[in-house]
Design brief:
single chain; about 80 residues; mainly alpha; about 0% strand; elongated
Length: about 80
C-alpha cells in the first residue's frame, strides 16, 4: 500500500501539535528550569522564558548537527 505524500507544512504542523500537546515537555520545564532562577530575581517569568529559549536553541543546534551528519554519512555509504 503506497503511503500518502505529505507536504512539509503538514509534517511541520503535525510535529508542532504533537510537541505542544505533550504534557511531558511542560512537566520537564516546570520541574527543571526553576532550579536555575534565583529566588530574589526581579523578573522570574522573563528568566523562565529566556532559559526555555536557550534550551530550545541548544536542542535545535543538536538536531541540525544530527541531521547534517546523518545526511553526510548516508551519502558516503
Amino acid at each position: 500500500v503506497p503511503l500518502p505524500v505529505l507536504s512539509y507544512g503538514r509534517i511541520f504542523r503535525q510535529g508542532l501539535l504533537t510537541n505542544v500537546l505533550n504534557p511531558k515537555v511542560a512537566l520537564f520545564f516546570l520541574a527543571f528550569v526553576p532550579q536555575f532562577i534565583a529566588p530574589d530575581a526581579p523578573q522570574k517569568a522573563l528568566a523562565f522564558i529566556v532559559l526555555g529559549c536557550i534550551f530550545n536553541f541548544n536542542g535545535m543546534i543538536w538536531c541540525h548537527l544530527l541531521a547534517f551528519s546523518t545526511a553526510y554519512a548516508s551519502r558516503k555509504v
